[in-house]
Amino acid sequence: MSNLLSATWERVYFKDLLSRFLFVSAGWIEAYAPGRDPAELRGKTDFDVFTQEHASLAFADEREIIRTGEPVVERVERETYTGRPDAWVSTTKMALRNERGEIIGTFGITRDVTAQITAENALARQAGELSAQNERLRELDRLKDEFVALVSHELRTPLTSIIGYIQLLRDERVTGMDADHFADVIQRNAERLLHLVDDLLFLSQMQSGTLALEVCDTHLAGVAAEAVQKMRPYAARKHIELTLSAPVDPHLPVDAARMAQLLGNLISNAVKFTREDGKVEVALAVEGDQAVLTVADTGVGVPAADQERIFERFFRTEATTRRMIPGTGLGLTISKAIVEAHQGTIIVRSDEDHGSTFIVRLPLALASR
User: What is the CA radius of gyration of the chain?
Assistant: First the structure.
């Protein structure tokens, strides 16, 4: 038995009642005391080989086994002796008994299971990632279903209005003033449809990686002024004060049409989510090597839990859904894509029920790619 265990590469030891070594295998020596003679360790303890911490833990285990006779069976734990954070062992310790069944010491065997634990951890990590991905896919499916329903509604409402007012226009009793009003309603709803189609086309280009910019030197203040002027009628219907502060007029290389789209989205959202008699402020400034656009409103605000998600495709806050505020959840996704295509950043600062401020930073000069 001694000869057999001496040659094994398993980490085996026998100890007496005082936790002094009686025997250690070649594998134990190789792992814990390389270069030492096994015979040299007889009569010594773990405190002669290991650190105080490691030896104290082992000694405590052996005292408990000797006291109760209960073994420790295949306990998987970190290998503290090596100091490697990724080393794991499976340890079995039990009472060593004589022919009368009396406990005369302890016996132990330790196996290196680092590879097994590493593989299991990797599998668990992959399973966790797969579960998270599946959950994300389920969430995307749910959002897409909501998106289809929203788009259907967004299409049906203006189309129904257009068809209805066209029928009214065909009524011979309609006067000139009524006809002008009907034409205005038809035009607004047609523009609403066009805006929706443009958003869907933009999303398609963004997903396919075919989004192209027509960059030229642009007066940003002029683009901002046009965007604000375009949104004034919508703000006026809700008695919202819409203002522009542009004490500077930075020239920077941007796609002017995309900048107009960006500002249109942000201002439109601000007006949409601001109650009547509220206020929307658009401001333009220069800070260092960046142009800074801000759109601030006194609207319903964005809950803190939703602020990281509002730029995601199709995402709409619970408050938006509850208040039945129309929209597809694409405006901010598109806005972020436009900003990032210009090597800029966009963030939101918001307090629920106290309004939101969207801050866009654009480089005055685009970096070469």
Answer: 37
